[in-house]
C-alpha cells in the first residue's frame, strides 16, 4: 500500500543562499521510524529531479522525531540572485509532502 507523506507528516522549508532546508515531521511520534526507514536522501533526490541539482544530506533528529534534508543547488542560484517566483523555496515543503511512500506489510 502506498500513501503520500502529507497523510502522516508535515514539513517546513528554510533557505540560505542556494541551499534549501526541508524538515519532515510526523504528526504522530510512532511514525518517525517509518519516515526514517523509507524517506531517504536518494528518494528525495529522485522526487525533486530537475529542481534540486546538488547533493542532498539527510539528518536524523530522533529527540524531536524529525528528519531534515539539506539540499544544495536548489534555489536557481539563490534567493537574492534568482528571479524565480518562489525564491525562498517555501512551496517545496508542500512538494515534498506529495511524495508517495510504500508502507511495510502488516
Topology:
Layout: E1 2-4, E2 9-16, E3 19-26, H1 32-38, H2 41-47, E4 56-61, E5 66-71, H3 92-97, E6 100-102
Antiparallel strand pairs: 1-6, 2-3, 3-5, 4-5
Report the order of strands and helices.
EEEHHEEHE
Q: Can you count the beta strands?
A: 6
User: Spatial order of the strands in the main sheet?
Assistant: 2-3-5-4
Largest sheet: 4 strands, antiparallel
Q: What is the level-2 CATH architecture name?
A: 2-Layer Sandwich
**Mean pLDDT across every amino acid position:** 86
Q: Helix- and strand-based class?
A: alpha+beta
Low-confidence stretches: none
Rg, nearest Å? 14 Å
What's the number of structural domains?
1
Tell me the CATH topology.
Answer: Alpha-Beta Plaits
Summarize the entry for a quick read:
This protein is 19% helix and 32% strand. It is α+β, with helices and mostly antiparallel strands and 106 residues long.
Structure description:
This protein has 106 residues and is an alpha+beta fold. The protein is 19% helix and 32% strand. It has helices at 32-38, 41-47, 92-97; strands at residues 2-4, 9-16, 19-26, 56-61, 66-71, 100-102. It has a four-stranded antiparallel β-sheet. A two-stranded antiparallel sheet has the order 1-6. Strand 4 (56-61) and strand 5 (66-71) form a beta hairpin. It is globular and about 45 Å long. The model has no long low-confidence stretch (mean pLDDT 86).
Amino acid at each position: 500500500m502506498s500513501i503520500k507523506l502529507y497523510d502522516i507528516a508535515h514539513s517546513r522549508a528554510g533557505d540560505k543562499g542556494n541551499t534549501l532546508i526541508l524538515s519532515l515531521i510526523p504528526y504522530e511520534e510512532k511514525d518517525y521510524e517509518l519516515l526514517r526507514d523509507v524517506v531517504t536522501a536518494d528518494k528525495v533526490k529522485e522526487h525533486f529531479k530537475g529542481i534540486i541539482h546538488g547533493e542532498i544530506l539527510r539528518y536524523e533528529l530522533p529527540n524531536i522525531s524529525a528528519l531534515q534534508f539539506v539540499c544544495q543547488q536548489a534555489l536557481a542560484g539563490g534567493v537574492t540572485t534568482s528571479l524565480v517566483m518562489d525564491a525562498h523555496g517555501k512551496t517545496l515543503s508542500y512538494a515534498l509532502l506529495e511524495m508517495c511512500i510504500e508502507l511495510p506489510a502488516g
